[in-house]
Every structure is written in structure tokens, then in C-alpha cells.
Amino acid sequence: MENTDNPEKIELKWWEKKQGISLYQKKNQAKVEKQKKEKRELKQQLDELKKQEKDAQAKKKEKKELSRAKTKHNPPLVRSIDSLYNIDSVPKDAQEVIADFMEIVSSTHPLNSRQRALLPKHIRMLSHYLTDERTDRWLGYMNETTSLSAYVHYYLWWNLVRLTRLFSNLPKNFLNLGEGEICLDIGSGPLTVPIALFLARPELRNVRLTWYCMDISSQALQFGMDIFLSIAARLKCEAWEIVRVKGEFGDRIKQSAAFVTCANMFNEANENTDMPPEYTAKKFAEKLLAYTDKANPSTKFLIIEPGVPKSGRFISLLRDAFIRKDFVPLSPCTHCAECPMNGEDKSNGGKWCNYVFTTEDAPKTLLKLSDQSNLTKERAVLSFVALARAGEEKSDAEKKDSLHKEEFLSFRIASDPIRLPGNRTGYYACSAIGLLLAVTEKPLHSGESYSVRMPKYQMRTDWKSGAFILNLD
Known about the structure:
The chain is α/β, with parallel strands linked by helices and 473 residues long. 39% of the residues lie in helices and 19% in strands.
């Protein structure tokens, strides 16, 4: 190929001479092409310089804003409200039961030496079945003895770790269940939610409650019933009345429920529909409400799902559907405004509502079993919403903030720490005014909620996520 970078060295080819092309024409054309090439390269260089200058200005502006917020404005008085995962709130006897859970299961459904040796393999196979092969999953997988045993020894155990931690820290006025109340747990499996609640809230152990536990696997319900009775005996308490219902979501029960729960159910239900999540959330909310008495002012719902983007999006949509039915979210929300972490808004990276805690406080035996199954777990995460009929229940944060709606701002931390310029740390948080970037030098943790006096100055926004920057120092 002929080099046209130096037009003076260009020569005519034989076929160009035959076509009547002059040497002057060819050199002139080469000069034009060279000029175009130089212009393109110069434009690319200028565009790159502009991009670098724009990024540098944005970072400089952010650093300047953080410095100005720290020096110009007095630091707000930060008041801690609660934490979703405070380990100190978990009763000691509940921690002991969870630590000895393997022994409790063995007392009701003992494994022989061969079954115990194969347990990690079966857990690993079940994990692949529940994740990698979801499209081919048989919904009644817990009717199969090996899968059910693996589920109870691993998934039920981890779910009790997560849910007991959460239930111990939910607002007391949300779980003030009264004598004789009817409760319903949908997709109950081995009674995961009732067992976790029984462990987490000692004040409810002597309250006469009736639980309808619904699942398509009668074998799982019986397995859970045996474990529940064993735990109640160990705690020297009378067990709640359990009515086992072999059925699926939507099947009727004999009485209207005042408290409806379901954990890790909708993630499976959503896999079996091609409808958009907005539609399914609305329909599922209507089906949940059908289990309750519209005239009961104390109706409550607790929906818990895995802390993954799809589930976080669904929980946000379900929250909106219930708000339109005159319910209020009591936890984790600190407000009833539009959810700023709904998993849909791409301008903030599609952030979804989920809360995490580390597993160093989990039973050593469970952590060892996880390692043996090649399912090492360092963090536990979930998405959830606790709802009550409007006007009947309010969280502690809402009660206090209602006195000064415009004066105080409540928010809940919903991210890991984010490194910022100036050796500072930021945390994304949910609030009534939208997504926040709480900036502080102090360590905060996912699930913690705080209240501050509403800043008098106009809050600036983070250039990356669009979150309002709230300086806490």
C-alpha cells in the first residue's frame, strides 16, 4: 500500500497513467487526505482533553462541596433511631437454640453416618437446583426426602439466623399480637417464620396464637412441626397452635387472618409468570388482602424476600400497591413517600432496597457446614417490608417525626461504605426526600436508621448517583 503521508514522494502507477491521472492531481488528493486525517486526530485529542477536564472539574466540585459542607454549616445533631440487625437484641436462649440447631434436628430426624457424610454434597446439589436450574425446578422439591433434609439442615438454619436477627429488631408495636389472634404463613415450608418469631420475641411465647401454615409440601410442614415442638419443649414454653394447610397461595383458609407473613415465596412465584412485575405485585397484594378482614383495623403483613435486585424491585412495587390500599410501611421504611431505591431508576444505578449483616456471629457449626458444601457465606442479606393498616400503627421514628414533619429528616442506611475524596466515607440511604448520600468519618452499618434536623441550606447532589449529599460531621 502506497504511503501518502509525504505527498512529495508519491509516484504514478502504470494504470493511473493509462487512466489519464496526472501526478499533480494525485499529489493534491494526497494532501487533502492528509489534512482530513490530521483534523480527525486533532478532534479526537480535543474530545479526550475535554472529557478529562470535565471529569476533573466534577471531582473537584464534589471535593469542594464536601469541604464547604463541613466548614460552612454546623454539623447536624444526629440521633440514632434503631438498627435492623443489632445482635444484642436477640434473646440469649434463642442464640443458644440456633447454635445447637443441628442437635435439635437430630433429635427429631436423626441421620445415619452415611447420610451425614453425604449431607454437604446434597446441600450443594440443592443449591444448584435452586439457582442454576431454576427454570427446570419441580415446585414440590421439598416433598423429596433428600432435598428436604438438605433444606432443613442448611437453608432453614441460615433462614433462622437471618430472620431471628431481623424479628428481634422490628418495632414492638408492629409485633404486639393479641390473645387468640389468627396468623397465616404462606409458603411456610418447615415453619420457618413461626419458629423464627417464637425464638426472637419471648413476650409472644405465652400469647395464645393460632398459626395457619400453608405449603404445597405436607412433608415439609410435618418436619417443621416436629422441630417447633422440640424447640418449645427446650424453652419450656407451650407451643402455638399450628394448623397445617396443604395448599398453594390463593387457597382459602377457614378464618380471616390478622397477621399474614411469607418468606422467600414470591421469588419462586414470579418465576412462573410472564406478566410484568407491576401487574403481579398488584395482583399478589389483592390475593394477600383476601386472607384478611377488611373491618379489622389491626391487620398487618410481613413480606420477606432474598436481597437480590429482582426481589428488591418486587418488594418496592408491593409496598406501593399496599399504600394505595391504605396501609403504611413501618419497616424498613422511615416514610410513606415514593421509594427512592425501587430498583428501576437507572439514573442512580438502579439501586434496590436490601440490608446486609456479616456472619461472624453465626454458629461455627453452620459456617463449617457451609464451607464443606462449598457455599461459604460471609454476608446475610434480605429485602422486606412490614405493613400495617393506616392509622393503627406507626413506627417510633414516624411518631417522633410527625411532631416536626418539616424540621427532622429520618433515613436508613442501605449500602456498604463508599470511599470519597478527603478521606471520608459515604453511605447511600433511603429518606422521604429521596436517595441520600450520608457523608461521615464515623462507621455506619447497613440497616441502621437515624434522624437529623433538616438542613436549612439547599442540599447539593452527588454527580454520579443524583443522591442528596447529607454531611453528618
